[in-house]
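Incident review: delayed structure delivery

Summary: a single-chain prediction request sat in the queue longer than the usual turnaround. Root cause was a stuck worker, restarted by the on-call engineer. No data loss occurred. The affected request and its eventual output are reproduced below so the record is complete for anyone auditing the incident later.

Affected input:
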Amino acid sequence: MPKKLNKGLSLILGLGSAASVGLSAPKPAEALPFQDLIVPGIQYFQLSNLSTKQKVELGSNIHQQVRGNYRVGTNATVTRIGQRLARVSSCSQTPFKFYVVQDPSINAFATTGGYVYVHTGLINAADNEDQLASVIAHEIAHICNDDLVKRLRQTQLAQGAASLAGLDRSKLAAIAYQLAIDLPNSREAEFNADAKGLQYLQQAGYDPNAMPAFLKKLASRPSPPEFFSTHPNPRERIAALERRIADSRR
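Output delivered after worker restart:
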């Protein structure tokens, strides 16, 4: 049986004693064209072949941007769920970190190097631990699939900077933050994260049906979450998930 979240006490009350910094509301990421990111001779990051250590470093630099724009804290329950899923993931060697963003909107996002963020609005919308875990599993899958790094490479190519020596790491973090916060993943990336996230959910012992169930719940709200406008149609995602769950039982 799915484990109920204690809505009376609320997971979010745990932020009262957690580290929480930044502003009360997010501010838009500032666009930084790649041609402004070139520092000749610096080899901090070669996007074609980032090591796990470099991804962690990049994720840490992006985290500083997140902290400057959101009220961010940690929560023991969110961390426990996240680490349980990370252990069965295909990139379990990554030192994952899980954060709660004090924001009433229903959303979650991930960057690279193990950094996962869940909004308080999404936590409050979940009926049980399994539903919350389904979202965290999806975000872990984005990291394991290197989706943000792939988008950085695509942006670099589109700006004609593919052959240049290197990028300044602080400015690279700024454009990575912009991609993670403001711009959607591709349709293919979202479906792949659903598929891999569902696998992690099952392997960690959570109810796989929680993933399509939570999507159904969010889609049925009078005002569906804003992220639906940048993601594949929820009906398609739900159907694909339900097919995968049925196939896994055969």
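Verification: Residues 52-248 form one domain.
Action items: add queue-age alerting; document worker restart procedure.
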